[in-house]
Amino acid sequence: xxxxxxxxxxxxxxxxxxxxxxxxxxxxxxxxxxxxxxxxxxxxxxxxxxxxxxxxxxxxxxxxxxxxxxxxxxxxxxxxxxxxxxxxxxxxxxxxxxxxxxxxxxxxxxxxxxxxxxxxxxxxxxxxxxxxxxxxxxxxxxxxxxxxxxxxxxxxxxxxxxxxxxxxxxxxxxxxxxxxxxxxxxxxxxxxxxxxxxxxxxxxxxxxxxxxxxxxxxxxxxxxxxxxxxxxxxxxxxxxxxxxxxxxxxxxxxxxxxxxxxxxxxxxxxxxxxxxxxxxxxxxxxxxxxxxxxxxxxxxxxxxxxxxxxxxxxxxxxxxxxxxxxxxxxxxxxxxxxxxxxxxxxxxxxxxx
Length: 353
Ligand SMILES: NC(=O)C1=CN([C@@H]2O[C@H](COP(=O)(O)OP(=O)(O)OC[C@H]3O[C@@H](n4cnc5c(N)ncnc54)[C@H](O)[C@@H]3O)[C@@H](O)[C@H]2O)C=CC1
Ligand SMILES: CC(C)CC(=O)C(=O)O
Ligand SMILES: [Mg+2]
Description:
It comes from Oceanospirillum sediminis. The protein is of the alpha/beta class. The chain has helices spanning 14-27, 41-47, 53-61, 84-94, 118-121, 162-178, 193-206, 219-228, 240-253, 292-304, 309-324, 342-352, and strands spanning 3-10, 32-36, 64-69, 99-105, 125-131, 143-146, 152-155, 182-187, 213-218, 235-238, 263-265, 271-273, 327-328, 338-339.
């Protein structure tokens, strides 16, 4: 049966990298129909709304969604409700894509591009499981208010219910069961009650997964350990904001944030797939963006939402091949390699396929 994929290019480098990923998807000759829609800043410009109703309806009926990135300085002064990022958060929350999987894998060809010493990162393969529809990015109340003394005060609320923690916890335990059977839950339970509860729920769940070894780490230490000795981790599970920050740090261990794909899934495995990076306004429109994170996100989409594991394997093998050929965008460039543009990298993956 024909599957429907909704493509949301977004802003900045979003359209550039998504073009390459769609080209790669098209090369596979699968029974897939592709539609596209506006989200983020481009949607604000066209409709005044970062998540137009039409986009949300298309997203609801698609089998899977591929998103580039949203945001940029053009919209930074907008009120929060009409910021591009609100469109992305709205999609995640409306579709209940609470489980965000961010695998950080070092391709051996990129050992020199990693910011860490080769012996510290060689063979690195960790998975960050980030809660994506709760926590401080969504908690109420939030805003900026003026106090009686005339001073303004900004406030957000960091809140998680037990059921929100339990459902992301289960996803992480199950992921750990399929991998190295080690799960590290990252919190700030020395300061924040919400993460005291987080830790307690993880401990309760651990009883149901006796084959998984559960450990706990405070987020500040976790940030340090990620750059000190990242291979100590197998699966990391954490809340929305900590996961956002830690996954950008983990990205650099793999050479570049341009290498980090992600899958955001609901309880039934329906998903949105996107690179972990943003719209990179500093390099947008220059053909410099690395499209591999988006291309690898397509592989995740084929594997998790479209039941096309063999095609996913083919894409990952093709990425290995272009790296073997020494082709590099600027962010992963090293001596002796060939610098290529966004489009040339996409073409090389297509040729490798
Ligand atoms: N999922 C999304 O749509 C996300 C959107 N954003 C938004 O993106 C805008 C820019 O945010 P930044 O903090 O600058 O983060 P960013 O991830 O866009 O860029 C950070 C740095 O990484 C580089 N970079 C990112 N992706 C790259 C790629 N594929 N190839 C090569 N280099 C790459 C950029 O050039 C920049 O120097 C903001 O409006 C932010 O809100 C940020 C993160 C995620
Ligand atoms: C709008 C942001 C929360 C997006 C982001 O930084 C991310 O998902 O990594
Ligand atoms: Mg982020």
